[in-house]
Design a protein that fits this description.
Layout (H helix, E strand, L loop, with lengths): L1 E7 L11 E6 L17 E6 L29 H11 L2 H8 L3 E2 L22 E7 L12 E6 L9 E6 L2
Antiparallel strand pairs: 1-2, 2-3, 4-5, 5-6, 6-7
Helix pairs in contact: 1-2
């Protein structure tokens, strides 16, 4: 698996009382990993209760990824945007503006809706992150998009799931 991203909790990202989210994805090509299924193990969304900066960069032999400085924009009222788009008949254009990197909100899918269900209650899990290949240039799925969901009823480090859809 390859390290994909690491995000710390804060006002921009609610991790249900936890400190850090670290993402890994299978790097095999040609559908060899079932990265579209959040339950198969091809991806890992690890929620950490404590932020351990001694492990921030990893050992020098694997320190090949790049850092990307990110800024958080003002929240977008996605519901209001879609309501206005429906009234104006511009739904397709509105959906394209929501297919971007974001924290929280509603998932905007490339293909079908694959929101995972909570194993404890069966209700949809909460979107933490939507990430495109614009931020994480991933060579196996150009134009792809990833989603990270968390079970709001599960405070454990295994409460998050990640899935990927190719472009």
């Amino acid at each position: 698996m390859c390290h994909m991203a690491q995000l710390d909790a804060g006002p921009w990202l609610d991790l249900n009382g936890n400190a850090r989210l670290t993402l890994f994805i299978c790097h095999a090509t040609g559908g060899q990993c079932e990265d579209w299924d959040p339950w198969k193990g091809a991806n890992k969304a690890l929620i950490q209760k404590k932020r351990d900066d001694s492990m921030f960069d990893g050992p020098p032999t694997v320190r090949v990824y790049r850092r990307v400085a990110l800024a958080v924009e003002s929240p977008v009222d996605e519901y209001a945007l879609m309501q206005k788009a429906k009234e104006q008949g511009t739904t397709r254009e509105a959906i394209e503006t929501l297919r971007r990197d974001k924290l929280g909100g509603g998932a905007v899918w490339l293909h079908q809706d694959d929101t995972p269900k909570s194993p404890s209650g069966g209700s949809p899990m909460r979107l933490l992150l939507q990430i495109t290949t614009n931020i994480v240039a991933f060579d196996i799925t150009p134009g792809g998009m990833g989603w990270v969901f968390q079970d709001p009823t599960d405070p454990s480090e295994g409460s998050a799931r990640m899935l990927w859809q190719g472009g």
